[in-house]
Amino acid sequence: MLIREATRKDSTQIIAVMTNAEASNLMLFGPGERKLEPEQFGSYIEKLYHSHHSALFVAEMEQKIVAYLILQGNEPSRIAHRAYLVIGIHSDYRGKKIGTALFNHVEDWAKVNGIHRLELTVMENNEAGIALYKKMGFDIEGIKRNSLYVDGQYINEYYMSRLL
User: Fold this and answer.
1) pLDDT tens figures, 31-58
2) pLDDT value at residue 52
3) Is residue 6 scored above 90 in pLDDT?
4) Alpha-carbon gap, residue 21 to 6, rounded angstroms
5) What span, in angstroms and rounded, lies between the C-alpha atoms of 60 and 38?
6) Are residues 66 and 59 in contact, defined by beta-carbon separation less than 8 angstroms?
7) CA of 141: how far to CAs of 4, 122, 134, in Å?
8) Cα(158)–Cα(125) distance, rounded to whole angstroms?
Protein backbone atom coordinates (compact mmCIF):
# COMPACT_ATOMS: atom_id res chain seq x y z
CA MET A 1 0.00 0.00 0.00
CA LEU A 2 1.19 3.47 -0.87
CA ILE A 3 0.01 6.58 1.01
CA ARG A 4 0.70 9.82 -0.85
CA GLU A 5 -0.61 13.31 -1.39
CA ALA A 6 -3.17 13.52 -4.18
CA THR A 7 -2.59 15.39 -7.42
CA ARG A 8 -5.00 16.81 -9.96
CA LYS A 9 -4.74 13.67 -12.13
CA ASP A 10 -6.24 11.60 -9.27
CA SER A 11 -9.59 13.41 -9.34
CA THR A 12 -11.56 10.78 -11.27
CA GLN A 13 -10.41 7.91 -9.05
CA ILE A 14 -11.01 9.88 -5.83
CA ILE A 15 -14.51 10.82 -6.99
CA ALA A 16 -15.22 7.11 -7.56
CA VAL A 17 -14.12 6.29 -3.99
CA MET A 18 -16.20 9.19 -2.63
CA THR A 19 -19.26 7.95 -4.52
CA ASN A 20 -18.74 4.46 -3.12
CA ALA A 21 -18.22 5.76 0.43
CA GLU A 22 -21.36 7.89 0.22
CA ALA A 23 -23.33 4.77 -0.80
CA SER A 24 -22.79 3.54 2.80
CA ASN A 25 -25.27 6.25 3.89
CA LEU A 26 -22.86 7.17 6.72
CA MET A 27 -21.36 10.28 5.13
CA LEU A 28 -22.54 13.90 5.06
CA PHE A 29 -23.77 13.53 1.49
CA GLY A 30 -26.33 10.82 0.82
CA PRO A 31 -25.99 8.24 -1.95
CA GLY A 32 -26.08 9.98 -5.33
CA GLU A 33 -26.66 13.40 -3.80
CA ARG A 34 -23.36 14.97 -4.80
CA LYS A 35 -22.28 15.39 -8.41
CA LEU A 36 -18.55 16.00 -8.64
CA GLU A 37 -16.82 16.87 -11.91
CA PRO A 38 -13.19 15.77 -12.37
CA GLU A 39 -12.02 19.17 -13.62
CA GLN A 40 -13.54 21.11 -10.72
CA PHE A 41 -12.43 18.54 -8.17
CA GLY A 42 -8.94 18.63 -9.70
CA SER A 43 -8.83 22.37 -9.00
CA TYR A 44 -9.82 21.69 -5.38
CA ILE A 45 -7.01 19.13 -5.07
CA GLU A 46 -4.55 21.63 -6.50
CA LYS A 47 -5.67 24.29 -4.01
CA LEU A 48 -5.15 21.88 -1.11
CA TYR A 49 -1.79 20.81 -2.52
CA HIS A 50 -0.51 24.38 -2.34
CA SER A 51 -1.90 25.06 1.15
CA HIS A 52 0.29 24.97 4.25
CA HIS A 53 -2.55 23.79 6.51
CA SER A 54 -4.56 21.49 4.24
CA ALA A 55 -3.95 18.36 2.18
CA LEU A 56 -5.65 15.44 0.51
CA PHE A 57 -4.00 12.05 0.90
CA VAL A 58 -4.85 8.84 -0.92
CA ALA A 59 -4.17 5.17 -0.29
CA GLU A 60 -3.19 3.21 -3.37
CA MET A 61 -3.16 -0.55 -3.84
CA GLU A 62 -1.91 -1.98 -7.12
CA GLN A 63 -1.91 1.54 -8.61
CA LYS A 64 -5.60 2.01 -7.76
CA ILE A 65 -6.85 4.64 -5.31
CA VAL A 66 -8.90 2.86 -2.66
CA ALA A 67 -9.24 5.52 0.06
CA TYR A 68 -8.77 9.22 0.75
CA LEU A 69 -8.32 11.47 3.76
CA ILE A 70 -8.90 15.20 3.47
CA LEU A 71 -7.26 17.46 6.03
CA GLN A 72 -8.85 20.92 5.91
CA GLY A 73 -6.84 23.48 7.85
CA ASN A 74 -7.41 27.09 8.73
CA GLU A 75 -5.55 30.33 7.98
CA PRO A 76 -6.52 32.67 10.86
CA SER A 77 -3.72 32.50 13.43
CA ARG A 78 -6.00 31.63 16.35
CA ILE A 79 -7.21 28.45 14.65
CA ALA A 80 -4.28 27.66 12.36
CA HIS A 81 -3.25 24.86 14.72
CA ARG A 82 -6.32 22.75 13.99
CA ALA A 83 -7.60 20.79 11.01
CA TYR A 84 -10.86 19.04 10.19
CA LEU A 85 -10.66 15.54 8.71
CA VAL A 86 -12.85 13.60 6.29
CA ILE A 87 -12.01 10.00 5.40
CA GLY A 88 -13.54 7.62 2.90
CA ILE A 89 -12.56 4.03 2.16
CA HIS A 90 -13.94 2.03 -0.76
CA SER A 91 -16.24 -0.72 0.52
CA ASP A 92 -14.10 -3.45 -1.12
CA TYR A 93 -11.10 -2.37 0.97
CA ARG A 94 -12.53 -1.75 4.43
CA GLY A 95 -11.09 -3.70 7.35
CA LYS A 96 -7.62 -3.90 5.78
CA LYS A 97 -5.84 -1.32 8.02
CA ILE A 98 -6.01 1.34 5.30
CA GLY A 99 -7.69 3.84 7.62
CA THR A 100 -4.98 3.24 10.23
CA ALA A 101 -2.26 3.84 7.63
CA LEU A 102 -3.91 7.06 6.42
CA PHE A 103 -4.30 8.42 9.96
CA ASN A 104 -0.68 7.59 10.82
CA HIS A 105 0.51 9.37 7.68
CA VAL A 106 -1.66 12.42 8.37
CA GLU A 107 -0.43 12.61 11.97
CA ASP A 108 3.18 12.78 10.77
CA TRP A 109 2.29 15.41 8.15
CA ALA A 110 0.31 17.44 10.67
CA LYS A 111 3.17 17.56 13.17
CA VAL A 112 5.60 18.78 10.51
CA ASN A 113 3.08 21.42 9.38
CA GLY A 114 2.26 22.87 12.79
CA ILE A 115 -1.12 21.19 13.29
CA HIS A 116 -1.76 20.45 16.97
CA ARG A 117 -5.45 19.44 16.89
CA LEU A 118 -7.26 17.06 14.54
CA GLU A 119 -11.05 17.05 14.59
CA LEU A 120 -13.92 15.31 12.84
CA THR A 121 -17.59 14.46 13.13
CA VAL A 122 -19.14 11.03 12.80
CA MET A 123 -22.71 9.75 12.85
CA GLU A 124 -23.42 8.01 16.14
CA ASN A 125 -24.54 4.87 14.26
CA ASN A 126 -21.23 4.56 12.38
CA GLU A 127 -19.76 1.93 14.69
CA ALA A 128 -16.83 1.02 12.43
CA GLY A 129 -15.84 4.66 12.01
CA ILE A 130 -16.07 5.39 15.73
CA ALA A 131 -13.97 2.30 16.51
CA LEU A 132 -11.28 3.44 14.04
CA TYR A 133 -11.21 6.98 15.41
CA LYS A 134 -10.97 5.80 19.01
CA LYS A 135 -8.21 3.37 18.03
CA MET A 136 -6.34 6.31 16.50
CA GLY A 137 -6.59 8.30 19.75
CA PHE A 138 -9.65 10.45 19.07
CA ASP A 139 -11.99 11.24 21.95
CA ILE A 140 -15.66 12.19 21.84
CA GLU A 141 -15.93 15.83 22.90
CA GLY A 142 -19.63 16.26 22.45
CA ILE A 143 -22.81 15.34 20.66
CA LYS A 144 -24.38 17.42 17.92
CA ARG A 145 -28.01 16.47 18.59
CA ASN A 146 -30.27 15.88 15.59
CA SER A 147 -27.43 17.18 13.44
CA LEU A 148 -28.35 15.24 10.30
CA TYR A 149 -31.63 14.19 8.71
CA VAL A 150 -31.17 10.77 7.09
CA ASP A 151 -33.95 8.64 5.61
CA GLY A 152 -36.67 10.41 7.56
CA GLN A 153 -34.85 10.31 10.91
CA TYR A 154 -32.73 12.78 12.82
CA ILE A 155 -29.25 11.44 13.58
CA ASN A 156 -26.83 12.67 16.22
CA GLU A 157 -23.19 13.23 15.36
CA TYR A 158 -20.25 12.84 17.69
CA TYR A 159 -17.71 15.63 17.63
CA MET A 160 -14.29 13.99 18.09
CA SER A 161 -10.75 15.32 18.37
CA ARG A 162 -7.19 14.28 18.95
CA LEU A 163 -4.39 16.46 20.25
CA LEU A 164 -0.93 15.82 18.81
Assistant:
1) 999 999 999 999 999 999 999 899 999 9
2) 86
3) yes
4) 18
5) 18
6) yes
7) 30, 12, 12
8) 10
